[in-house]
């Protein structure tokens, strides 16, 4: 079982909002979190198009952060403070059900990440949030970002199994659709509050997902755990 | 803290001897295990010299296994049985102290593998033996085999720390020496029985190691755990 991480297992929006608000920078943490995340796809696109060579997410986050600090007119941070803030992505908190749900699934399946986060980011986050991964797989291992097929197929190849023996769980239909295109089985995890409780996300089921669960804790019994 | 795995954390010789003996192939499991392991360095050397392109250890093991089956005149195995036997490296048992020792170290440090085993091999082994890694790092991540500097320095880069902030623990002085050459701190783990109790290995201390421990359980208190 492979898991998307940002939004699916951890609450990036709430974690970043809380940390930015606590820094008293005179900006709205919620807006800052959304703006940072909005830079994610375009930054990865620059790598996938070949405009940028292989660049790990920490470094993409830093480029975005420098732009955001200018845009939000924050000029008071030292280099050490910027480096620390950039690593807020290593300190994201898990959704309340995630640790227990993963623990139940782990008793029966091999559970791994399949995230665009770099290995160190995901390992630090697992240590911070208590996520009991059997293995951390990352775009960094395959040097391709999702939704490149090499990432989904890479999970199957890593464990020497057929794609149909791998389930991807994610809170994003586009990620799941790309995984199905590679032959993986998919499970949708509702995370209506991914962008904050004030902006509920449409979490309608998609008929092509084998499973649809409200949370990871909810997914476990659907798989007999 | 990064750990060498084969011989340091798990008992490859005992595990393979036991499994081969249990297969009743009419060969001596101890001799078979030693012969298989003897092919390890030459096989990796073919990759590191460029004679072979990047090849994961599972595939190198399979090439060696096919040669061994001929040399030991074993002609009775089906393809499925050969594939299963090749994965004995995924099913190695931990040294008796390893799980508890790693658990204690994990409470204070980030503990990862730095092994020439491929990611899937190490993940399966962790699941089999109960090894509580925070992160599985492998030659496969860096596409270089130890003792290439990219592997040791890759651990530091993965966690965005200086090489001197990483400790490598291993039962092999040559591995530790190469790590020190990259600036890592090193801990030697005695595993006198690595090649079987009948062939005790010289486990004399080397003065350049920061620490010398009889086992991983023994290493923990030396690090305040």
Question: How are the secondary structure elements laid out?
Answer:
Two copies of one chain form a homodimer.
Chain A: E1 2-3, H1 12-22, H2 29-38, H3 40-48, H4 57-71, H5 79-86, H6 98-106, E2 112-115, H7 119-129, E3 135-138, H8 139-142, H9 149-158, E4 167-170, H10 173-181, E5 185-189, E6 211-213, H11 216-222
Parallel strand pairs in A: 1-2, 1-4, 2-3, 4-5, 5-6
In short:
Chain A is an alpha/beta fold and 225 residues long.
Q: What's the β-strand tally of chain A?
A: 6
The geometry of chain A reads as: globular
Tell me the strand order in the biggest sheet of chain A. 3-2-1-4-5-6
Mean pLDDT of chain A: 97
Strand/helix succession of chain A? EHHHHHHEHEHHEHEEH
- DSSP summary: helix tally of chain A: 11
Sequence stretches where pLDDT stays below 50 over 5 or more residues of chain A:
none
Structure characterization notes:
Two copies of one chain form a homodimer. The first copy, chain A, is of the alpha/beta class. The first copy, chain A, contains eleven helices and six strands. Chain A has helices spanning 12-22, 29-38, 40-48, 57-71, 79-86, 98-106, 119-129, 139-142, 149-158, 173-181, 216-222; strands at 2-3, 112-115, 135-138, 167-170, 185-189, 211-213. In chain A, helix 1 packs across helix 2 and helix 6 (98-106) runs parallel beside helix 11 (216-222). Chains A and B meet through helix 7 and strand 3 of A and helix 7 and strand 3 of B.
């Amino acid at each position: 079982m492979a898991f998307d991480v940002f939004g699916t297992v951890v609450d990036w929006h709430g974690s970043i909002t809380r940390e930015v608000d606590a820094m008293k920078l005179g900006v709205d943490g919620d807006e800052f979190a959304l703006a940072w995340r909005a830079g994610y796809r375009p930054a990865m696109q620059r790598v996938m198009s070949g405009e940028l060579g292989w660049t790990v997410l920490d470094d993409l986050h830093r480029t975005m952060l420098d732009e955001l600090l200018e845009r939000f007119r924050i000029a008071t941070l030292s280099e050490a403070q910027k480096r620390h803030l950039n690593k807020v992505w290593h300190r994201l908190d898990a959704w309340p059900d995630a640790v227990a749900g993963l623990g139940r699934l782990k008793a029966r399946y091999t559970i791994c990440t399949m995230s665009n986060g770099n290995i160190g980011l995901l390992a630090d986050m697992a240590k911070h949030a208590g996520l009991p991964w059997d293995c951390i797989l990352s775009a960094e291992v395959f040097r391709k970002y999702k939704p490149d097929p090499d990432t989904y197929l890479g999970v199957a190849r890593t464990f020497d199994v057929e794609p149909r023996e791998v389930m991807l769980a994610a809170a994003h239909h586009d990620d799941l659709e790309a995984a199905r295109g590679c032959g993986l089985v998919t499970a949708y995890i509702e995370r209506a509050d991914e962008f904050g409780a004030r902006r509920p996300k449409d979490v309608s089921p998609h008929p092509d997902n084998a499973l649809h669960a409200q949370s990871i804790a909810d997914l476990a019994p659907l798989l007999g755990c």
